[in-house]
Amino acid sequence: MVARVEVTAKAEQMIAQLKAQHGPLMFHQSGGCCDGSAPMCYPANELRIGGEDVRLGRIAGCDFYIGAAQFEYWRHTQLIIDVVPGRGAGFSLEAPEGVRFLTRSRVFSDEEVAELEAAESTQ
After folding, report:
1. What Pfam families does this protein map onto (predicted)?
2. For 58-114, how does the pLDDT look when each residue is reduced to its tens digit (9 = 90+)?
3. How many structural domains are present in the chain?
4. What range does the domain containing 37 cover?
5. Is residue 45 exposed (0-12), middle (13-18) or buried (19+ Cβ within 10 Å)?
6. How close are the terminal C-alpha atoms of the chain, in Å?
């Protein structure tokens, strides 16, 4: 089955490094207020997940969430988490490493949308 969120090999390496430093991690796709639209990386359970957050899946063994309103805009796209040089938001764990996580995306095919909707209707 197609995944709603994927991770590049380079980002997966950074996640492994951050796990070694900080222990279990989680991600939340920012809604764009203070942090732009960056995926934010936190120690697991440090960010309170609300009733309006949607769990998209797991990347590199970490839960990945997005706010419900933003999910409605992006529900037909697969999020691909990458890492690039540069300073991101100060709240995300990768910032001191001189890199930032970045969300890339691609539109799901009609077949993938049908597969996702069928799977979600049984949950």
Report:
1. DUF779
2. 999 999 999 998 999 899 999 999 999 987 666 899 988 999 999 999 999 999 999
3. 1
4. 5-121
5. exposed
6. 15
